[in-house]
Amino acid sequence: MKTIEFKDGRVVLIDQTLLPLELKYIECDSAECIAEAVENLRIRGAPAIGVAAAFGLALTALQNSRESRERILSELEKSSERLKKTRPTAVNLFWALDRVMEKARNSNNVVEAVVKESLRIYREDIDTNEKIGEYGAALIEDGDVILTHCNAGALATAGFGTALGVIRAAQQKGRKIKVFADETRPLLQGARLTAFELVQEGIPVTVITDSTAAFVMKNYGVTKIIVGADRIAANGDAANKIGTYGVAVLAKEHKIPFYVAAPLSTIDLGISSGEKIPIEFRNKKEIEFFNEKRTAASGAEILNPAFDVTPHKYITGIITEKGVLGAPFEKSIKRAFKS
């Protein structure tokens, strides 16, 4: 099962809005199709969004391959700007687009450069996730009970996963572990996607409502919490799916280590603290309705942030492809980028 793939001049991706009931693939032949898929969460998760955006530029380059270099670059700029407007919080989106555009501007063969760089980003993401899994697995002990929030598995990346990649790697090393997955309201990425992935891997998983997290921490022997991230500030503050901040506060109260698993590409050195991370607010209908039936009182105001920011003081460590970064995060993050 591949989350996303560049195949025969098209981008093939899983429509994650249909899981776990239906496994359906979408074929995109334009950057606009990719943008629509990102906006509507057909593909989601910071690393996967970055790969999808890079592939979107590859599609634009191929569509304009017979045009002049200047025209190709102009069309790439338009596609890049369109893709940047899809979701504001996940920094991998902007990182990948800027990286591909830099290659395009500095190459005589623009089309070849764009396609190669997009594929390089795809392959690097899988390799990076496997390294994150290796470093993270060293933190996991036999018998650990791990709680996770939202989905940071293969479905959120080009493959293998970040937070779930750690869990997957630990299982591959023979660790016997159990997982509690917050359902992650309002779109249930934990119940629909994380549980789906773990069941497929044969890893014991129990789905709980978000509001059950404290009860489980207190009564069911949770030993570690591992989540992903969509953007991490230079000081270690981490933005992840709404509700993560509350889980981190609860972890602190129950003296449970709280880890964030993410590639270095998710760390935004241009943002000094979490207060400056842009937070996406989504359509109120995601809360007003469930399965097309109204669940919120008509006339009530709706607040629907997609993410919150966990201050670094609640984070035990950030698991990256360069190792596990610890406090003070400003120093350990700088060292990781220099190594």
Please characterize this protein's 3D structure.
By secondary structure, the chain is α/β, with parallel strands linked by helices. It folds into two domains: 4-129, Four Helix Bundle (Hemerythrin (Met), subunit A); 134-338, Translation initiation factor eif-2b, domain 2 (Rossmann fold), CATH 3.40.50.10470. The protein is built from eleven helices and 16 strands. The chain has helices spanning 31-39, 46-63, 69-84, 91-105, 110-137, 163-172, 189-201, 213-219, 244-253, 285-288, 329-338, and strands spanning 4-7, 10-14, 25-28, 145-148, 178-182, 205-208, 224-227, 231-233, 238-241, 258-261, 267-268, 289-290, 293-294, 307-310, 317-320, 323-325. Strands 6-5-4-7-10-15-16 form a seven-stranded mixed beta sheet, with helices on both faces. A four-stranded mixed beta sheet has the order 11-8-9-14, covered by helices on one side. Strands 1-2-3 form a three-stranded antiparallel beta sheet, with helices on one face. A hairpin with a 2-residue loop joins strand 15 (317-320) and strand 16 (323-325). Helix 1 (31-39) runs antiparallel to helix 2 (46-63), helix 2 (46-63) packs parallel to helix 4 (91-105) and helix 3 packs antiparallel against helix 4 (91-105).
